Amino acid sequence: MSVVEELYLGVPLWAQILFWIALAISVCSLISVTVLLVNSLREKRQNQRDQRGTPAESEFLWVFMVPALNEEVTIADSVQRLRQTEASNAVFLVIDDGSDDGTAAVLAGIHDPRLHVLTRHAPHARQGKAAALNNAYRHLRESILTQPEYARWSEDRVIVTIVDADGRLDPKAPESAGRRFLDPGVGGVQTLVRIYNRRGWLTWAQDVEFSSFGLVFQAGRAWWGTANMGGNGQFNRLAALADVADDEGPWRHKLTEDQDLGVRLIQAGWAGVQVNDVTIDQQGLNSLRRLYKQRVRWAQGAWQALALLRGTMRGRMPLAGRVDAVFYLLTPILQLVVGFAFVTSIALWVFLGAEYRPSYWWVLIFFFAVAFGPGIITLILRGGRWYSPFTAIVLLLPYTVYSWMIFPVVFVSLLRQLSGRTSWAKTERERLDAADEPSTLVRADS
């Protein structure tokens, strides 16, 4: 009996088909991670060469947009850190989206001529992050850039940066992003996201998740110019935003408006890149309940992004990048199939007594590589002086537990999408304390 025949011996035919599809998806995922890993190493070397180039941040006007809805806990910290940003030409545009706490009072107490506060009132306020950003986009073009001190800046030299109210942007971020924007074809630059309040296992796992995504997946796609935007720490050329804007503005009313914008910029021919030599630190969630609520919203946004598939297939990008972009957009469907196959295998084992007894020892190694290979790779590459292959293997189990714990959001978000429920609640911030200072991180290019 061949290995193909024996692989799922004793399993019902319908389950065999499901398992073969899930296996094919897993193999494709492993191949994808390997290709992106190679690309990320090439991109890293390219970035190191670029760092020896001419300083570029003074060539641009940096407009930092901070959406703020009831952010009295973090807004002062965020603005203060933005004021320390090493940008020769800067504007800080805070969007007070109808706050009813002390956000307005905190902002009123900050005296800096570069600070502009756009206050939104009912009934236009609290209509979602996209509405707030679109309002700020129009205010920037119609009010701020028409002022004499800013009139000299053309839209291709204005860089709009999104910083969430809990964000702590590396002061050197404009210099790093500016080198990439010297290429007139670059429309978006995303910085590496890290979690600064990683005091427990849950926030540690979120930090691994974000940093691994930036160091491997985003950096690998940057080689093709198809790195996506992640909202916090996202830089966009104003000319690129204008290119994809409609009557309301560049952002659409989606649950993940950042992902939607990034994909549409790439489809319009603008390159998206990732920089990992600077970071944007943000709060992680220490509550599993709040984490689920946040991830259900993100996962539902991924379901909504399936509508972008047609434009991606016609996109102006390398063939390999186009295939990867399609694979990326299909992620919720692929996760659903693999998750269903996993649940099915447990059910067959518990209720039907179906057993899996391969006689080929290398089959088990193959399954281990497919199931855990991407996790080991990303844990090794996430950065840090104390990381090693051995450490990555030790940490693989707790991170895998975390991944499977939040996996049900794929199913829950699909049910919400099918039922037409698109409402969402803002993630609550935690109060800051002395332990929440960003740690000294080893940069990805070191």
TrEMBL record:
How would you describe this protein's topology in the membrane? Answer: Multi-pass membrane protein
Membrane-spanning intervals of the chain: 17-39, 326-354, 360-381, 393-415
Q: Where does this protein chiefly localize?
A: membrane
Report the Gene3D superfamilies cross-referenced here.
Spore Coat Polysaccharide Biosynthesis Protein SpsA, Chain A
Q: Tell me which Pfam families the record gives.
A: Glyco_tranf_2_3
Task: Tell me the compartments it is located in.
Answer: Membrane
According to the record, the signal peptide region is none
State if Transferase is listed as a keyword.
yes
Name of this chain's protein:
Glycosyltransferase family 2 protein
Question: In which organism is this protein found?
Answer: Microbacterium aoyamense
Lineage, please?
A: Bacteria, Bacillati, Actinomycetota, Actinomycetes, Micrococcales
